[in-house]
Automatic annotation (TrEMBL):
Enzyme class: hydrolase
UniProt keyword Hydrolase present: yes
Keyword Hydrolase: yes
Enzyme Commission number(s) from the entry: 3.5.1.118
Organism superkingdom: Bacteria
Signal peptide: none
Residue ranges the record marks as coiled coil: none
Name under which the protein is recorded: Gamma-glutamyl-hercynylcysteine sulfoxide hydrolase
Sequence ranges assigned to domain Glutamine amidotransferase type-2 in this UniProt record: 2-278
Assigned keywords, A-Z: Glutamine amidotransferase, Hydrolase
PROSITE patterns: GATASE_TYPE_2 (PS51278)
GO molecular function ontology, one term from the record: hydrolase activity
Length: 278
C-alpha cells in the first residue's frame, strides 16, 4: 500500500537509506516483501530538516521512485539529522503531487501507510471536523491528509500522541455512525524538527508492518567496520515499514496499538488508545 521510513541521529546522506541499503526504500518500491502491494510506484516524497527551528524542506513527485533521476541526485546531496521518506501505492485517490507524502504544515511533516475504509462515505463529515483556520491549507484529496489536519486540529503541536489518539477516535466514531466496520488501518509518522512520533494502530488489530532499529551502540559493537552504522552515531534511531538490511539484532517489530516518541536519543513507547469525543 505504501512504505516509509523516518530517521533521527547524526546527519547522514539520505542516499544511505533510500538507495544504498540492501533492501532500501527504492528496492521496496519495486519489491516490497511485507506490504499489502509488492510495487509502490504512485509517487514518492522526502522531507528533511536543516538548521534548528528552520521549516522543513520537501521534495515530492508523481514519478515512480525508482525512475526519478532527481531523487538520486538530491539524496546524494542532502545530509540531515532528521528526515522522512515515503513511497506511495494509491488506494482510491488520484496520482498527483498534492496527494504525495509527506504532508507539511509549519514545522510538521506527516506520512501514513494504510487507509480509511469507505473514505468516500466519511470524507465530508471528517473534513467538517477540521479547524476552519487550517482548512485552506489542505491541498489534496487523500484520507492521509485529512488525518493529518484532524491531528493538527486536536492539538498535534501541544501533545502529539493524544492528538493522534483523538484523530483515530473521531474517525472510528464517525465510521460507526455510517455503519463502516474496521474503518482505520494506519502506521503514521509525525515530526516537528525535534522529535519523531510514530504509531501502529488499526481498528481490526491487523496493522501494516512497522519496525524500529535497536541500539546503534550495540550494532556498532557487532559491526565495527560498517561505516554507515558509525556515521549515524550511537543515538541514531530509525522507524520504518520494512527492515533495510538483514542484520541479526538490528530491528524490532513495533507491537499493535503502540506509539513511539523518539527525541534526541530518548525513546519512549506507550499504549495507543483512540479517544472518542464527547
Amino acid at each position: 500500500m505504501c512504505r516509509w521510513l523516518a530517521y533521527t541521529g547524526n546527519p547522514i546522506q539520505l542516499e544511505t537509506v533510500i538507495f544504498r541499503s540492501t533492501h532500501s526504500l527504492i528496492d521496496q518500491s519495486l519489491h516490497s516483501r511485507m506490504g499489502a502491494t509488492t510495487t509502490n510506484g504512485d509517487g514518492f516524497g522526502i522531507g528533511w530538516y536543516g538548521r534548528l527551528y528552520e521549516a522543513p524542506f520537501r521534495y515530492r513527485s508523481v514519478s515512480p521512485a525508482w525512475n526519478d533521476r532527481n531523487l538520486r541526485e538530491a539524496a546524494r546531496a542532502i545530509h540531515s539529522p532528521l528526515f522522512v521518506a515515503h513511497i506511495r501505492a494509491a488506494t482510491e485517490t488520484p496520482v498527483q503531487e498534492s496527494n504525495c507524502h509527506p504532508f507539511r504544515h509549519n514545522q510538521w511533516l506527516f506520512v501514513h501507510n494504510g487507509l480509511i475504509r469507505h473514505f468516500h462515505m466519511l470524507r465530508r463529515d471528517l473534513m467538517l471536523k477540521i479547524d476552519p483556520a487550517l482548512f485552506a491549507s489542505i491541498e489534496g484529496s487523500t484520507d492521509s491528509e485529512v488525518m493529518f489536519f484532524l491531528a493538527l486540529t486536536y492539538g498535534l503541536q501541544q501533545d502529539p500522541v493524544a492528538a493522534l489518539e483523538r484523530m483515530a477516535g473521531v474517525i472510528e466514531q464517525t465510521a460507526a455512525r455510517h455503519r463502516v466496520e474496521a474503518p482505520l488501518n494506519m502506521t503514521v509518522c509525525a515530526m516537528d524538527g525535534e522529535q519523531i512520533v510514530a504509531v501502529r494502530y488499526s481498528s481490526e488489530r491487523q496493522s501494516r508492518t512497522l519496525f524500529h532499529s535497536t541500539s546503534f551502540k550495540h550494532l556498532h559493537e557487532l559491526y565495527p567496520h560498517d561505516p554507515r552504522i558509525a556515521a549515524a552515531g550511537e543515538d541514531a534511531f530509525l522507524v520504518l515499514s520494512e527492515p533495510l538490511v538483514d542484520l541479526p539484532d538490528a530491528w524490532e517489530e513495533i507491537a499493535e496499538s503502540t506509539a513511539i516518541v523518539a527525541r534526541r536519543g530518548d525513546i519512549r513507547q506507550q499504549a495507543f488508545v483512540p479517544r472518542m469525543r464527547a
